[in-house]
Design a protein that fits this description.
By secondary structure, the chain is mainly alpha-helical. It has two domains: 71 residues; 65 residues, no CATH class. Helices cover 83% and strands 0% of the residues. The relative contact order is 0.11.
Length: 140
Amino acid sequence: MPDSPPSRLRAGSIGRILRFGVVGLSGVVVNQGLLMLLHGAAGAPLLLSSIIAIEISILTNFLLNHTWTWRVPLREPGLLRRAIQYHAAAVLAAFAGNVIVLMAAVELFGVDYRIANLLGIAVGTAINFTAGEVWIFRSR
């Protein structure tokens, strides 16, 4: 008997979650590397360096997630729409994770900021992956 749609979705989602995590780690490397290059080595202002590093890491993560995590060919129609959706989801995930969860955990519950930041990253990752599954890269 063939797999039911929910079991196929779960099986596919596990691989996507793992690939999404690898892409996310690459984004951290891109972000941190560019921040260190622009601000640390080139002396550019921290805020400008951070914005550029974040934006480049969002774009590289989009391309990797598009082609590897969700296996959508770049030539498939809707690339710009998916890029805009991905960017919106990434910004929402960063805000929800890095701002709301971080600040709430620290201010309301007295959690150390380093732990709170990791919690925020986890929440942001879950938001970003869910947006990819149900909105940006959903089955066509």
